[in-house]
Structures are given as C-alpha cells and as structure tokens.
Specification:
By secondary structure, the chain is an all-alpha fold. It has one domain. Helices cover 90% and strands 0% of the residues. It contains three helices and no strands. Helix 1 packs across helix 3 and helix 2 runs antiparallel to helix 3. The longest helix has 29 residues. The protein is flat and about 45 Å long. The N and C termini lie far apart (34 Å). The relative contact order is 0.11.
Length: 92
C-alpha cells in the first residue's frame, strides 16, 4: 500500500509541476500585445491537437487492450492536469 501511495504522490507532483509551467506560460501570454498573444495561443492550441492525432494514429496500430490503455491513460492525464491547472488558477 505504501508503494502505491508513493507512486500517486509522484504523479501528483508531476501534474502540479506541469500545471505550474502552464500557469506561467498563460500568465506570460496575457502580458503580450493582443495580436502576438492570439498567434501564440493559436500555436499552443494546435500543438496538443497534433499530439492527439499522433496518439490516436499510434493507438490504432496497437493491440486493442494496449490501445484502450493508451487512450484512457491520455484522457486521465488530461483530466488530472486540467484539475491541477484549475486549482492553481483559482488559488490566485
């Protein structure tokens, strides 16, 4: 049981570190001029979309069980990450 708690703690720390980096990036973008912030935001939105396309293309070449693990793992990671970002944004 102790090992699982340690693993969850490491995952939580990883999610919080990524969330803090995203929070810093968002704060930096908001300080840019409007046209530049629109361009940077468009690039930041297109990168995860391209990553999602890559994950799904990779997933469909895998065994169905591994495909499900990859897709659900990515989904759960995004949910945890968005919750961490929401927590950091609301804490300010």
């Amino acid at each position: 049981m102790r090992k699982k708690e340690n693993s969850n703690y490491r995952l939580m720390n990883l999610a919080m570190a990524i969330a803090k980096a995203i929070n810093f990036i968002l704060d930096t973008i908001m300080k840019l001029p409007l046209i530049l912030s629109v361009i940077v935001t468009g690039l930041l939105i297109s990168l995860p979309v391209a990553g999602a396309w890559y994950l799904f293309a990779l997933a469909f070449s895998l065994h169905p069980l591994l495909r499900a693990i990859l897709i659900w793992g990515a989904f759960l990671f995004l949910v945890i990450l968005s919750a961490a970002v929401d927590y950091l944004r609301s804490a300010k």
